Amino acid sequence: MVITREEIDKLLSNSQSDGKPLSLEGADLTRINLDGLDLSGANLRGAVLAGASLREATLSEADLREADLQDADLEEADLSDALLTDAEVAGASFRGANLVGAEVEDVNFTEANLEDVRFL
Predict the structure, then answer these.
(1) Dihedrals φ, ψ of 101, to 5°?
(2) Which CATH number covers residue 93?
(3) Longest dimension (CA), the chain
(4) End-to-end alpha carbon distance in the chain
């Protein structure tokens, strides 16, 4: 089942009012537009975000371990201190993204655009 942006907005609002991070572990978010959304601390472990647009999204401290981000657009996104271990990011664009403090062990950056990425 694919989740829509409207459903994400509602879930995010509910999680913020509960004071808990958003949990979308294993969710199918293929080709979703999440541009500019604040997903700080969100649990997206194993989520499918292939072809998704996350331009200028805030994903600081998010759990993206084992997530599928193939061909995703993460230009200018904030992934500081995010967990990306074992994520699949082949073909994704991280142009201008902030990856300072992010865990990127065993990440496949094949054909990913890493132009102007900040790692330090």
Answers:
(1) 80, 0
(2) 2.160.20.80
(3) 39
(4) 37
Report yes or no on whether pTM surpasses 0.85.
yes
Alpha carbons 101 and 93: distance in angstroms, whole number: 19
CA separation, residue 79 to residues 4, 7, 14, 96 (Å): 22, 23, 23, 11
Question: CB-based burial of residue 10 (10 Å sphere; 0-12 exposed, 13-18 middle, 19+ buried)?
Answer: exposed
If one counts the domains in the chain, the total is 1
pLDDT tens sequence across 5-25? 999 999 999 998 998 999 999
Domain span including residue 67: 1-120
pLDDT for 42-100, tens place per residue?
999 999 999 999 999 999 999 999 999 999 999 999 999 999 999 999 999 999 999 99
Question: Structure tokens of 78?
Answer: 């904030």
Helix (H) or strand (E) holding 8: helix 5-18
Distances (CA, A) of 10 to 21, 59, 75, 77, 96: 13, 18, 24, 21, 29
